[in-house]
What does this fold into?
Amino acid sequence: MKILVLLAGVADIRFPLHPISLSSDALIQEHGSPRRLLSPFDEAALEVALKLRDARAETQIDVLLLDGVNSENLLRSVAAFRPDSLQCLQLQPCQLWDARQTAAQIAGLIERDYPGHGLVLLGREMGDLDEGSIAVLLARRLGRPLLAMTQSGQWQNEQIWLMRERGNYEEWLQVDRPLLASVTNDRRNKLRHPLMKNVMQAKRMTFTHVAASATARAGMTLSQLQTAPVIPRVGQCRLLDGDIGQQAKVLADWLKEQGVNQ
It folds into this structure.
């Protein structure tokens, strides 16, 4: 089985957020010395792939890491887990606020360079500003079924089965056709620590960059967005002031006025 893992870093909350601005062509520019790290969902997607390879050594793991600030350090941290290949993914143009554009770019690259990968794994909010739509749009572009909120995977005989929980039940899906799965974090997919010798080797590695291009979609650019107007509330809606205790008292008094005594 060939598995493709898509990763994207997020801002490291241990450091102040770096300045961000727009260029003249409405592209995001990041300044200063920003830091990125893998999100919990990225880590979960990588760990699911690693566990499948642990069980079957012939499993091939290829990784694409979305380009951005601090990419070299992030690539080295992923390289320490020894994927079969690791490349930095450059979107041209990079417009992460446009999920359809991003999905079209990544789908084109997958169809060109990774057509034989039966399973594509990505964090459930990969690269889309927490919107959660890239996985859905990417699956549609690729013509693949989507298993959202995946939590773990395992081999059964010659097939991979993926699991997610729904309420008190577990749902298992057999990967018997090309599939895309968005992964959420779970106690079963907490990313392991890499071996120190692999960490040291990763520090000496160099990485290739691959471009995912697509014609920019016509429509609104980020620079054209404006602050939404404040619309006053009308009707029976009422906002409660004060702290939690004061709000609770006002609500209790109102319920009593409506004849609710318990």
